[in-house]
Amino acid sequence: MNTIEKAKISDAVQMHQLINYFAEKGEMLARPLSEIYENIRDYFVAREGERVVACAALHVNWSDLAEVKSVAVAEDYQRRGIGDQLVAACLKEAKELGISSVFCFSYKPAFFERFGFSQIDKMELPRKVWTECYRCPKFPNCDEIALINQLVISS
Fold it and tell me: Which parts of 68-145 fold into alpha helices (H)?
């Protein structure tokens, strides 16, 4: 079992390669290396020695809203529960921060539905659509599925 930990600056290039490998296959959106560096604190990684074998990010959008994004697991490490561990780490961090709603855009909604996410219309996420999505090459014809998880935050 791999340990999930916060990403380091030295992980950024490998994370970029991993994310963009799946983006080239049409399975997720590409991320520029500069964006990964800018948001390095959002990312969790799983490593095998010095190799980053998986990553995921929790990006805070607003006081009550965050996004799980860039969930990527190297093909030779899939089906080992690493993606599950990464999403669980993101949801745990959201709860610790007191964020009540976590969303994602995905081509694989069934994966996220296992964690309590449910499908919604993208327009129910106007902060996401008008602050980030409009810059995407797929806007306004996005084919990703929007999902949201309403977390129970204990005070």
Answer: 82-97, 109-113, 126-131
Give the pLDDT confidence of 89-139 residue by residue, as tens digits.
999 999 999 999 999 989 899 999 999 999 998 777 755 554 555 555 665
Q: Is the pTM of this model over 0.85?
A: yes
137 cis-preceded (ω within 30 degrees of 0): no
pLDDT at 10 (0 to 100):
97
Give the span between the Cα atoms of 149 and 155, in whole angstroms: 18
CA distance 127 to 129: 6
Indicate the DSSP class of residue 76. Answer: G
Domains of the chain from N-terminus onward = 4-150 (3.40.630.30)
DSSP track, 19-66 = HHHHHHTTSS----HHHHHHTGGGEEEEEETTEEEEEEEEEEEETTEE
